[in-house]
User: Fold these one by one.
Assistant:
Number 1:
Amino acid sequence: MSARPVAVLAGGVGAARFLRGLVRILPPEEITVIGNTGDDMWWHGLYIAPDLDTVIYWLAGVADESRGWGVRGDTFTAQAALAMITDRSWFQLGDRDLATHLYRTGRLAAGVPLHRVTGELAERLGVRSRILPMSDARIETRLKTDAGDLHFQEYFVREHWRPAVHEIYWTGLDEASPAPGVAEAIEAAGLVLIAPSNPSISIEPILRVPGMRAMLRAARGKTVAISPLIGGRAVKGPTVELLRAEGVRPDALGVAERYQDLATGFVLDTADAALAPSIAAIGYRIAVRPTMLDDVESARDVASTAVNLLREPAAA
Amino acid sequence: MSARPVAVLAGGVGAARFLRGLVRILPPEEITVIGNTGDDMWWHGLYIAPDLDTVIYWLAGVADESRGWGVRGDTFTAQAALAMITDRSWFQLGDRDLATHLYRTGRLAAGVPLHRVTGELAERLGVRSRILPMSDARIETRLKTDAGDLHFQEYFVREHWRPAVHEIYWTGLDEASPAPGVAEAIEAAGLVLIAPSNPSISIEPILRVPGMRAMLRAARGKTVAISPLIGGRAVKGPTVELLRAEGVRPDALGVAERYQDLATGFVLDTADAALAPSIAAIGYRIAVRPTMLDDVESARDVASTAVNLLREPAAA
């Protein structure tokens, strides 16, 4: 079985850290990223797509990798001026980052669908992989919390994911369909990867797009998921908290169970090796690797492991 | 007759230069500016109101007075990044200036009408006069030119007002009405001023708002216009070119004739003193002053002249 081309379901930073390894072991042109847009929001008139931007910035080599969002070396002059005229300034807009939002918003206003604008941005920033939004439709991830009914960004950025979450839900699903190119990418793929992203709010919105889960179920035999948890903790963000809110076991086994109808390969961290037998027992072919992905070498290793996992002879 | 309160019909820089004198001889709180919005445009998803911004920035003391637009000391980081991803970057967006556009666009998107947003911006930037748009409706000044049918900003900024203009016209007038507060300001005014702005594309759009001309005709006896021309030339911009395109005599007398049904006082430049008798002959009370307005003293002098013109005993 050829691993090419590859389709990757992706959230933000976790996926981006993984993808910078993947593009080093496969021709970037053969990779299609299907990105979460549930976190997108309108902010002071601009359409912001944080996960798509994160993936594009990392693959373009301009990401602020230590901060985890925005453009490296960016300035915040507009942001500071905005904070002088409104309290509504909790979502940080870097000056260079603003150019991305301006371009995207202007094109959307001109009637260009999100998948085309995303492709234009990726191309103009020098990204050779194909970056697709999960849908051109406006799907919004919302959370019912102790602090009220919040947009994901309100919960994550404004409230620093402190409120207890009671429910995650989505608006806009009814009218939505996968973006043009998504179905073709999954069908043509020799390998589908579920990036080490938050299952509840990065991967789940992608799966919720009408038609998507059925397509991915049909692709189960060629799909490998990478666990976003290490020793029961997230590298960054509220992965554990949100899995708990959903009643999912917040560890690698819980994630593996969650993806059971979608994937046959599973990569988990060495810290979770004790869970490997249980994950294998529910039908996965597994690999155990250090998955912190905090440098390119580690990302390349995990990517290589994921790419080869289903190509190796099955264990006895 | 008391000159207070005062209503001022205003375009961009010419009006702003005049207003910085007016606010020094009258309590700023007693001044209502009725600003042109025909030059407004959507630009990369943001709603830009160049004339309102110019007036606000000048009165707030943050304008780049030598450049004539934007904020003093602004940086252009977002602009430079935008120019890397699109050719559509001829309209310059300063980083601090962007905060104004972001705030305005966000509020408009939230359903707040333009006159309220304008008031909020002016207040938050410390402007004590009331700044109103001529209308909350979207009225667009367009020009038929040798280079095609252009938005005013395309003609003015992108094409550097080089194309020959055949016709000026407006879209959006049918549904428009004066912004809330405009009629009250004109009615309550002891004095209405027509700022030294381009008659064709700064003042005319205001007059075209349905209902506006009739109100201003009724206010004729308390209205003073200040000529935007000096020796038959504009201080800045295509005033002469556009008057010619309209078949209007491109000098102080032509402007006076144009405002004949709207004003009884007229301030013209010393360079145009030879036209004074002709302007007086068509029914104006006139004053002749240096009107370059290139410093605060000159602006204060012209403002004072305009404010007192109709209060003085009529000449024999």
Number 2:
Amino acid sequence: MGKVIIATGIPGSGKTTVLGAAKERTNEKFSVVTFGTVMFDMAKKKKLVKHRDELRMLPRQKQREIQKLAGEKIASMAKSETIVVDTHCTIKTSSGYLPGLPEWVLHAIKPDIILIVESSAAEIASRRGRDDSRVRDDEDEEDIALHHEINRANATACSILTGATVKIIYNYDNHLDAAARDMAEIIEG
Amino acid sequence: MGKVIIATGIPGSGKTTVLGAAKERTNEKFSVVTFGTVMFDMAKKKKLVKHRDELRMLPRQKQREIQKLAGEKIASMAKSETIVVDTHCTIKTSSGYLPGLPEWVLHAIKPDIILIVESSAAEIASRRGRDDSRVRDDEDEEDIALHHEINRANATACSILTGATVKIIYNYDNHLDAAARDMAEIIEG
Amino acid sequence: MGKVIIATGIPGSGKTTVLGAAKERTNEKFSVVTFGTVMFDMAKKKKLVKHRDELRMLPRQKQREIQKLAGEKIASMAKSETIVVDTHCTIKTSSGYLPGLPEWVLHAIKPDIILIVESSAAEIASRRGRDDSRVRDDEDEEDIALHHEINRANATACSILTGATVKIIYNYDNHLDAAARDMAEIIEG
């Protein structure tokens, strides 16, 4: 029986890079799934949507059902191997910070560990500035520090509902190797 | 069907002023209710109290029932229009920070958005000093910053239990217009 | 009927010292129980373990049952007098911050107040350095400040699930008397 590790990090934290580098540093077998993709597959199978963008058009109650089913799917996948769930503590929207792991998702997924990949606010602002593939976010360092604060509080509340631990992995510039080793150790657990 | 927006802010944040200024800037129809008043009306109707001060004398279990009924009343009001609930994330008491939105209230209200009106700790301390109508609070800027930290964590935990977003609106001195526009946008949402 | 007060504080906060000093300053009758000890007694009675170290070897589901029973035991003890529960918001482990008060424990204990004994990060680092009886923790002041942030968020989420207040008691060097008086006032409450 594997563990369920939820991997989070704000845009620019380098979460995906760290996960990739960790995979090269461990012999532990594990799969990475993106929560949004599991949700989309579930909604497509139920013939509720054809395209991913339609997910957010679903009525609120339908969205929650799909979130819950996606969570249960992930919990069942973890019966045979460790699953790392790529997702967000919160997503910054025009209406505020939207929780990526509401209560009904947490109770379905039953995570063992909630990871937050962090870097300094200055480094994240600089990485976002260099990334031409994304719409440049106009958040300054203070906004990024606030998003970190909200996500730490968020992960902490998630841990109370599930018993999961909260682990912060620092991914500082030029120290990817240290972050990848921390991540590999958590996965090997 | 309207939204339920919970509007919070510590004393001196200017929450009520921002709500009033937002009302002048939008054509969206919405009502503002004070959570404590809805609770009092509910308890009076049930013949449990005659005066508002008696609310806190009720046995704990009775208080919770009234809180839950008040939450359900607000959720039902939101069937016809958007409701802004004027309340607090936490109230500072001699026994510590008392949660204004415990789990049973959140599950009854089912909010869409939890707003926090904030200002800098220095501005809040200065506004409280000028306000002769209130008992002057002896909190210094560090205490105010801590109350902000507790309230952000509080709103974040509320969002996990409900799926609501957490939106921080800054109400800096001489920038009421910006705060009112932010508030109006959230209400129009 | 007594109150249930949960007393928390990271290693070096001086929680136990403050509790002892508070006992000397009040005539209020109260008992202090250590959550881990109540759990161990419960597991021993159920013939699940003989030694305390075996507790963490129990299957996860069994551990949760014991935690829940220990919480219910504490709630029943509080029928006759005020109980102070000596425990942790979170325990720092190699897998991250482990919650000491997950949802099922909170719902069983039904606390009235969650106390956090804090000191400055510099003082805590210095106290830990002087303590030869413990394995010296290699946390620096930034790590300690982060642990404080996590524990405040943790206690805040606990308060939403239970309605308990969150009270921070500062135990600065050479000011034990002030901390003990704050603690005694909360217990007398």
Number 3:
Amino acid sequence: MFWFQKEIFLPARKRGFHLITGELLREIPEIQQISIGMANIFIKHTSASLTINENADPDVRRDMETYFSKSVPDGAPYFVHTMEGPDDMPAHIKASIMGPSLNIPIQNGRLNLGTWQGIYLCEHRDYGGSRKIVITLQGEKK
Amino acid sequence: MFWFQKEIFLPARKRGFHLITGELLREIPEIQQISIGMANIFIKHTSASLTINENADPDVRRDMETYFSKSVPDGAPYFVHTMEGPDDMPAHIKASIMGPSLNIPIQNGRLNLGTWQGIYLCEHRDYGGSRKIVITLQGEKK
Amino acid sequence: MFWFQKEIFLPARKRGFHLITGELLREIPEIQQISIGMANIFIKHTSASLTINENADPDVRRDMETYFSKSVPDGAPYFVHTMEGPDDMPAHIKASIMGPSLNIPIQNGRLNLGTWQGIYLCEHRDYGGSRKIVITLQGEKK
């Protein structure tokens, strides 16, 4: 049984949905030692989130941002928690809709993702800054 | 420590929410060997998803489809990613709302679900075709 | 390798979002034995859910309830599953949006949460009653 945990910082990104699969994988060469296992990717924030979606067309990421910002509007009049700006409470709500973590099976040293699946960082703040991620790998050693 | 991973294909289903608990369980008799553990069920697609909800009244599944298709409308004018049809971009969005995986505790050889909980395949495309699922079991052997 | 599973009951709470981090942690002193691991927290219901969000300002919890109850309205005319009351079908939908489980990394005997992250019980029914939670811990022993 193999356990590995690492905390990394992702650089600040603009508001929107960003493909980070390659960036994450470069941080965990240890995954190659696992024959069958699980990867957990966890974001330590409440105004950004993680999701899995289409990894090819950037328009998908653009449409995700358009949709979620329509669905949870900045500065909606019914929000009470407004001290940190009109984008803050919507960011918290989007974070709970998408969720803070992903659990991806590992097979023969690799994430067992579908052909079109990529990992997205969902940055819900206008100026969210750098984001902290915990990656936990576990599984059977090859 | 016991690890088991299996990839299965679910047959094509029409758009909507479908109860698949029994179908999944028939694929994993190995679960009976585990005293305490976790099951991860992961869908390798970005226009279908998995969720847990009420397992008794088919109207719940119908109302879920009604609600989510109102909430994320086919062919909304603000979508840019439209080449694969009016149901494609909404399918991606619903997939991120519901999420691609479930993590269910195992207790004494069985999924430790509540009485009314069932596993749903959420098919968000009009013609999504067959869907690939990865089931990963891990735990202490009995 | 260490496995631990416990089922607990949370007392009935009113409809809304409730911070339960401390209440959960008091139930699992066993977590201190783990150096690297994962915690899974699973709710055995389909009209309540779990999420992680801001742990400081109660207005965030209030705004979450306001938003989700606007977004998934009680008694919407298109719901067919209405026998258990106007808040029941919306509760099922919110449960699938937020999800039934959390997967949180364990580091050196503690949940590896961000400074501002807390665990919420999301009670979507007007009178949901007591709620059953399964906590599963796994990891390397210190």
